Amino acid sequence: MKALEDKTSYVREVKRKGSRSSMNDNLAMWVNRISDDDLYLFNEGTHLGLSEKLGAHLVNINGNEGTYFAVWAPNARIVSIIGDFNQWNKTANPMHPLGKSGIWKAFLVGIGKGSVYKYYIESRYGNYKVEKADPFAFHTETPPKTASVIWGLDYQWGDQDWMNTRQERNSLDAPISIYEMHLGSWHREPWEGNRHPNYREMAHQLAEYVQEMGFTHVEFLPVMEHPFYGSWGYQTTGYFAPTSRYGTPQDFMYLVDYLHQHGIGVILDWVPSHFPNDEHGLGYFDGTHLFEHCDPRQGIHPDWNSYIFNYGRNEVRGFLYSNALFWLDTYHADGLRVDAVASMLYLDYGRKQGEWVPNKFGGRENLEAIDFLRKLNKAVYEVSSDTPTIAEESTAWPMVSHPVYVGGLGFGYKWDMGWMHDTLDYMSYDPIFRKYHHNSLTFRMAYAFSENFILPLSHDEVVHGKASLLGKMPGDDWRKFANLRLLFGYMYAQGGKKLLFMGGEFGQRREWAHDESLEWQLLQYPPHQGIKRWVVDLNRLYRAEKALHELDCDRAGFEWIDANDVEHSVLSFIRKGRDGEKVIILCNFTPLTHFTYRVGVPESGVWKELLNSDAVEYGGSGQGNMGGVEASPATVHGLPFSLTLNLPPLSTLFLKRQHERPREGDTDG
Predict the structure, then answer these.
(1) In which element (H, E) is residue 3 found?
(2) Separation between Cα atoms, residue 651 and residue 472, nearest integer Å
(3) Fewest CB atoms less than 10 Å from the CB: which of 175, 274, 425, 609?
(4) Which domain-ending residue is among 128, 149, 170?
(5) For residue 512, how many other CB atoms are within 10 A of its CB?
């Protein structure tokens, strides 16, 4: 482990030196671009800056402008560079092996930015000949074309204020409310032929919208280049290139930069679990299974028909370490959401008996992947301590978001998939049956603070026949909208950071479709306006009240008032901040108004209605408590004071103790 720790200085040195354009003019650096130390670290699997050593780099050596190429193909007999500059001639520009390292390199004079290229490889085994895209390419042709494009990464960032305060914005006690989105289907204009917007166009629209909605971060479904648009980015071929469908690397930098300048964090979805079998990609790269396992029981993912990385191979681990840090460093990403972690942890994931190979102890745990994830997270936090990693992990694997030094996997956060499934199942029931499934809501408290959780209502829940969030809700339109407001209120009241996929915030009716725009036209109708206004106010309250976010991941921040009112399908609980502030939440999961409902509270005084999802402005019936209620000295639920409330139908109420009586006319209901 010490070897990996020692290598973080490389990335720090890259940051200290500044932009790559200044380094490109350093003759000594480029003549000795891959040193013996680089080769040692590469073969050891601990090199964290491989994007600086491999791939295509614009250089100027003794006044000769050109491009330096380097590619790892240890089992190749011949490697050459083919492209539009040599009419794709396989013999015009041969590469040369760098000792016995398995790396081939070449410098081509006069070949510059924008040139299109691939590597032509003949394997030393059999008659395998192939044209491969550059695994380290910074830019690519726009699919369906598959070649790499020579490109620089120079950019003048303007987000220093954001970067200086990022630590506190990403911390466990910060309000983190994430707007998950797919760039290509967020906002298309029909009068423009339903075309994809570009990164720069999206920057201005998105920053304005996210600020209006009150989200703190956006999370992009994978932006790394992918040949099949319908994979949403989860079948990656260009691990170091933002997809060219929406513009250049600098255009994507502008998007991130602009969001940062407007106070919005950017989380990137990252896929180290599998990669597609397209011929130009990583699979069978040099006529051998270089990046993937050769045994299909280990190297082919049956659910996605894609290759699985060989986490036991040093050079593959270095490729992935370097890639993660590349997005955090080069593109100023504020975190990485790591996809399909469960598929990495278990050797039998998606497989039947006899279709998988046990580990050396006879178990189903993928020991090499576990080691990889721990070292990955350790490297990320050592190099960039203010950028959390987030695990999409759907099982009960212990201590996913605990530090490596206590035996955890080292992630910063984990998606609470159990909460998502249990809650959506519960909400799909007709309210008359909900009392029989009450434990679907209360079970979460058995594990809610065992991890640093994010509560996801993600893209996976609104596709493939699952219906939109609004479509999952039972009843007529009024009940559907009331249920959706209740769902969002319940999510924001729970401990854990928040994530909502685009379209849910205004009650999209149809499922998400990756090749169509969201149904923005629905916002002309009052019920959808009400949902949007409710989400805006939830985000505002979540950010304003420390009791709702400061102890999101700490058991001290939550206390039940009554978890067992099954007959009324009501939950009541307290959220707490470190300074003693408290917010009371009540959720009524039935369409009945519960008049004179008694609930215990810990303190005397007037408790003001901060938010009421049944308010008219949200599309509700307008029932409430005239802005607030004074506590009486009567013990209820084991608490010394109590409130007598009207609980509106299918509603969430947020209340906070005030020192003054509510003024006449001060009402949220």
Answers:
(1) helix 2-6
(2) 17
(3) 425
(4) 149
(5) 23
Q: Residue 531's closest CA among 491, 493, 484, 494?
A: 484
Burial class (CB in 10 A: 0-12, 13-18, 19+), 529: middle
Say if CB 567 and CB 435 are below 8 A apart: yes
Burial of 429 (0-12, 13-18, 19+ CB in 10 A): middle
pLDDT bracket for residue 192 (50, 70, 90): low
CA 508 distance to own-chain centroid: 21
Q: Tell me the pLDDT band of 395, cut-offs 50, 70 and 90.
A: very high
pLDDT in tens, 115-152: 999 999 999 998 999 999 999 999 999 999 999 999 99
Residue 64: predicted pLDDT: 77
Domain-embedded: residue 654: yes
CATH of the domain at 119: 2.60.40.10
Q: What does the pLDDT read at residue 62?
A: 76
Which tens digits make up the pLDDT trace of 332-351?
A: 999 999 999 999 999 999 99
3-class secondary structure per residue, 472-485: HCCCCHHHHHHHHH
Full DSSP string of 271-333? --S-B---TTSSTTTTSS-SSB-SSHHHHEETTTTEE-B-TTSHHHHHHHHHHHHHHHHHS--
With a CB cutoff of 8 Å and minimum separation 6, the contacts of 585 are 489, 493, 571, 572, 573, 574, 575, 652, 653, 654, 655
Q: For residues 179 and 456, give the distance between their C-alpha atoms in angstroms, rounded to a whole number.
A: 10
Residue 197 has what pLDDT?
86
Give the Cα separation of 399 and 418 in Å (integer): 15
- Counted domains in the chain: 2
**pLDDT (tens digit per residue) in 537-584:** 999 999 999 999 999 999 999 999 999 999 999 999 999 999 999 999
Smallest CA-to-CA distance from 430 within 469, 465, 480 is with 480
Q: pTM (2 decimals)?
A: 0.93
Residue 350 lies in a domain: no
What tens digit of pLDDT does each residue of 575-626 get? 999 999 999 999 999 999 999 999 999 999 999 999 999 999 999 999 999 9
Q: Given phi > 0 = left and psi -120 to 50 = alpha, else beta, which region is 496?
A: left
Compute the average pLDDT of residues 424-432: 97
> In whole angstroms, what is the distance from residue 367 CA to residue 531 CA?
46
Report cis status (omega within 30 of 0) of the bond before 358: no
Closest CA to 117 of 103, 137, 143: 137
357's CB contacts (< 8 A; 6+ apart) are 295, 297, 298, 347
Domain residues for the domain of 145 are 2-149
Question: Last residue of some domain: 126, 149, 172?
Answer: 149
Q: Which residues are catalytic?
A: 339, 392
More confident residue, 190 or 103: 103
CATH code for the domain in which residue 491 is found: 2.60.40.1180
Per the domain annotation, does 251 fall within a domain?
no
Amino acid letter, residue 488: F
Using the predicted structure, report yes or no on whether residue 227 has a pLDDT greater than 90. Answer: yes
Is residue 601 in some structural domain?
A: yes
pLDDT at 195: 75
pLDDT exceeds cutoff 60 at 662 = no
Closest CA to 143 of 233, 65, 217, 60: 233
Alpha-helical segments (H) within 75-159: none
